[in-house]
Amino acid sequence: MERWYFDTSVLVAAAVIHHVHNSRAIAVLEELVRGKNRGYMSAHGLTEVYSVLTRTPFQTPVYPSEAFQAIEDQLLRHLSLVPLDENEYIDVTRRAAAAGWIGGRIHDVIHLQCAAKMKCDRVYTFNVRDFRALAPKALTDKISAP
Question: Which of 3, 9, 41, 110 shows a CA-CA span of 20 to 30 A to 29?
C-alpha cells in the first residue's frame, strides 16, 4: 500500500469542474479511492483549500457552503489530515528563515513536512518545480503532477 500526499493545487483543481487541471486531479483521486493506497493532506491544507475556493474568481463562483460541501464529499472522505505540532511549525519556520525563503513558500514547506512525516511515496502537486526546489532529498523524486 502506497501513501499519497495531495497539495492544495491538486485538491482545488479536483473541486472546480471548470479548472484547467480538473480531469487530471479527479483521475488521481479516483485512482486513490479505487486502489488500496492511503491519501493525506495537511491540516493546514484544509483551510488553504477553503480559502482558495471561496476567493478565486472562478467562472462559476464557489460559495462558502458549496466549498465546504466539496471539501467534505471529495476530500475528507478519502484523505487523512496530517497535523503538525508546535515544535514542527517552529522547525519549519526556522528552516525557512535560515534558507532565506520569503512569502508563501512557507506553505509549500508545510506541505512537504506533512508528506515527510507520513513517509509518503508520492507527492502530487501542480507546482512541481517549486516543490522540488524546497523538498528534502528524500522527497524530490516522489514529487509529480497528476
Answer: 110
